[in-house]
Amino acid sequence: MIKIESSPDEIYDIELEHSLLEANNELAKKNRALLDKHAITAIDFMGAIGSGKTTLITRLVEKLKDRMGVAVFNGDATTSSDADTIAGYGVPVVQIATINGCHLDANVVGKACAKVDLGKIKLIFIENIGNLICPAEFPLGSRARVVVVSVTEGPYMVRKHPHMFLGAQLVVINKVELAEIMDVSVEELIRDVHTLKPDLQVIPTSCKTGQGLDEIVKAVLAVK
Amino acid sequence: MHELSIASSIVESVLEFAESPPPKKVLKVILQIGELTCVESEQLGFCYTAIIKETPIEDSVVEIEKIEAEVVCSHCDYLGPPKYWDEAIAGMRIATLQCPQCGKTTEATKGHECTIRTIRYVEQ
Q1: Would you say residue A84 has pLDDT above 70?
Q2: By CB count within 10 A, which of A99, A179, B1, B122 is most buried?
Q3: A106 assigned to some structural domain
Q4: Does A13 contact B118 at a Cβ distance shorter than 8 Å?
């Protein structure tokens, strides 16, 4: 509510509780309601540039496309190369070009929803822009948020970007086949995640060898 | 740089307020930013100052109140400040969702604020 106080020199304070992220949060709720109506689960993948989000989503599409309707919303600042790769698998792909934007927001995801036949889809993978900071503040309406970090990003990726992990429901530690070469301890990365959020599920994976992929499929199908 | 889009949304709201009758001169905008957001206060202030140039609120200043995090634990009923991870990065303490009392995962009740708290102004 609004309260106005006057002081002797006629300076007024108007008290507001105006949330600056409210507009996005409201749109995220709308997206979620729309997806729920069609019994669709959307999962949002966040991670740095080069962490392997596209490859991981491609592997998941390969494993799931014959079992259910899958679509991919691919956030990419300028190019459509990632979207083209995934579209090669014959699933609906919407490329969301943000040009200079550093994150997807609920508004663009809502527009992407309008471009696919929701009646034929049960699962949507949303690939966020490669960025470990901004996307954390902008829920999209997904049922789960996944953070993808790879061992090639060094040993401190988790503790340097705590906000991403605090809001996540699943963490994928990718490219574990390179851990030894990179001299990065996967166990320590897992420990860091659990220091931030003890019950957060962490799956070490390699899109190269296939390690962990079935476990991710299981986790994705278990998202309520 | 999500600070820029947040600053734009602040300026939009403050301008709307300033331009609604009666005419007002906005002196200060007080924001509340929670410690669990990844909104960088200094960048936000910088963006605000950059955007308001040549607008009716160009003489206003922005003040940021930081809101400390608070967590609640559904396992042991703890309610209070979060457990901090002190040695995570040199010189930085990180709020975690680990319960300070029982070590399980808590939920944040405070710390996600990103709001315009107060607009201070004079009528013209």
Answers
A1: yes
A2: A179
A3: yes
A4: yes
Residue of B85, B97, B119 with shortest CB distance to A16:
B119
Q: Is residue A56 predicted with pLDDT exceeding 90? A: yes
Chain A CB within 8 Å of residue B41 CB: no
Mutate to test the interface with A, among B1, B2, B62 (most CBs of A within 10 A): B2
Measured between CA atoms, the residue of chain B closest to residue A200 is B105
The helix (H) or strand (E) run that includes residue B115 is: strand B114-123
**Are the beta carbons of A19 and B104 separated by less than 8 Å?**
no
Average pLDDT over residues A50-59: 93
Question: What is the signed CA dihedral for A61, A66, A67, A68, rounded to 10 degrees?
Answer: 70
DSSP track, A41-87: EEEEEEE-TTSSHHHHHHHHHHHHTTTS-EEEEEEESS--HHHHHHH
A176: CATH: 3.40.50.300
Whose tokens are 């108007």? That residue is A14
Q: What are the strands, taking DSSP E only, across chain A?
A: 4-6, 11-19, 41-47, 70-76, 93-97, 123-127, 144-150, 170-174, 201-204
Does the beta carbon of B90 lie under 8 angstroms from any beta carbon of chain A? no
Fold category of B2-123 in CATH: hypothetical protein PF0899 fold (3.30.2320)
pLDDT at residue A38 greater than cutoff 80: yes
Range of the domain at A36: 27-222
Which residues on A lie below 8 Å from B96 (Cβ)? Answer: 162, 166, 195-197
User: Chain A contacts of B105, Cβ < 8 Å?
Assistant: 197-200
- At residue A9, the pLDDT reads 64
- ipTM value of the model? 0.84
Distance from CA of A218 to the nearest CA of B (A): 22
Mean pLDDT value across residues B69-96: 92
Report pLDDT for A86. Answer: 82
Q: What is the value of pTM for the model shown?
A: 0.88
Q: Is residue A8 predicted with pLDDT exceeding 60?
A: no
CB proximity A5 to B under 8 Å: no
